[in-house]
Description:
By secondary structure, the chain is of the alpha+beta class.
Amino acid sequence: MQPSSENLLTALDRAPSEQAVFAALQAEARRLGFEHCAYGLRLAVPVSNPKVITLNDYPSEWQARYVEAGYLQIDPSVRHGQRSQVPLVWTDEVFASARAMWDEARDYGLRFGWAQSSLDGFGVGGMLTLSRSSELLGPQELAAKESEMRWLVQAAHLALSRLMKPRYAVQPEVPLTPREVEVLKWTADGKTAADIGAILAISVPTVNFHIKNVVHKLKAANKTAAVVQALLSGLLN
């Protein structure tokens, strides 16, 4: 790791806010030869409609237009990031299915870009995008810089998820007891109340009592939702 990367990692680890993290990412993007930097973080819950948090320094008019037109739902680079963690270089072919969006983006100076997504063990996904208005991002430049860019993706995800996830993750006001966690773990493995009772040497009503308490503490709709929330929030680790 180069000294500059070590300094950046220290800055990201010590950053007190997502704005401070993003400022460090912006500076690194400039050093790598890009004008703009964007990071999107997708939380794991609610599963049916995950919350997406974005930070970027794109022109404000483009930011407003992107939201107004609902481009997040059709953006081919976002779709790629949801399916693959292979880096993506912007091309006409990549954006062929969203030509109007691509034309507008280029009008705002977003013509050449690179993006890569990441996914952590809690199901939190993220994607870093670096872009500029001029100079094609060619093979020679990629060969020289892509290892640093890919490292930046992981460093950004660790720093931003550290700061953002606690704000939105499900954390019960009253902590789960060790027995409740134990029961929930076996429930997550598909065990029935009778199975869990036999494994833990407790009665079925006692198992159901613990599950009921967990559902109440997590404000979940039912047992299944409680298991998912607890798992993705790291409460079962």
